[in-house]
Amino acid sequence: MRGLSSKLHGQVAAGLLVVSTAVIAILATAQKAQSTDLTTPSFLVATRDLREAPFQHAVILMFPSTEPPLLAGVIINSPAKVRVRDMFPQVRQLKGTQETMYLGGPVEPDEASVIFRASSAPGSATRIFDDTYVATGHDAIVGILKDPRIADLRVILGKAQWLRDQLYSEVMRGAWYVVPAKSDLVFCDPKDLWSTLVQGGDLQEVEAGQAPALNLPHWRFDATNWQRQISPN
């Protein structure tokens, strides 16, 4: 029996090692903010030290601001009690996962935007990265909500916004991890998103040495896409 028990224990340990290795591999792209720049599509992930509302346990999808030198993004893991159809009653064909609105941040809390996945930009929508787009304005959002080709979407109220030096100061104080943005994570179940990403950030922080300074962009907007103007550090 002792031999069988040892064998089973070894099999379980090996299985756990495989799972742990897979999780670490998935999260290995999470990096401490000081070593990452926001000129690439990124999430800001609140570290365990950040406890101020509304950013405690927040995961923020960063996207370029239309008002340089501001940096902006939306919290993607904070469901609101308001339903989408409460604001857009003319839209009836929403799926269950699309019914809930999200709180995107404390700036302009009454202004709605929609982030979604599409093979190409419909209407006035703007590409953030890969197949992920954002649209603002009542009519544009209604058009997205009514488009049967769009399955993954989030309607979000408000946004988070910083001056470049303000955000730089926060990440240097250890308030945020920066994680490369992935479309699948943007639209996944928000319940465990923060705990999954912050675990990856913790692992990287333990392994990281002295990192180079964070490179934060200034942004300019045109009618077709986000264009970057990188400011010097």
How does this model look, in words?
With 233 residues, the protein is an alpha+beta fold. Helix content is 29%, strand content 32%. The chain is built from six helices and 13 strands. Strands 1, 2, 3, 4, 5, 6, 7, 8, 9, 10 and 11 form an eleven-stranded mixed sheet that branches. The protein has a two-stranded antiparallel ribbon with strand order 12-13. Strand 12 and strand 13 form a beta hairpin. The chain is globular. 33% of the residues are buried.
List the helices and strands and how they pair.
Elements: H1 2-27, E1 31-32, E2 42-46, E3 59-64, E4 70-75, E5 79-83, H2 84-87, E6 100-103, E7 107-117, E8 126-129, E9 132-136, H3 138-146, E10 153-163, H4 164-172, E11 176-180, H5 183-186, H6 193-207, E12 217-221, E13 226-230
Parallel strand pairs: 6-10
Antiparallel strand pairs: 1-11, 2-3, 2-11, 3-4, 4-10, 5-6, 7-9, 7-10, 8-9, 12-13
Helix pairs in contact: 1-6
CATH superfamily: VC0467-like
β-sheet strand percentage = 25-35%
| Annotated CATH architecture | 3-Layer(aba) Sandwich
In total, the number of domains comes to 1
Number of strands: 13
Helix content: 25-40%
Distance between the termini: 64 Å
Low-confidence stretches: 1-36, 208-233
Backbone shape: globular
Report the total helices: 6
Secondary-structure element order, N to C: HEEEEEHEEEEHEHEHHEE
Write down the CATH class.
Alpha Beta
By helix and strand content, what is the structural category? alpha+beta
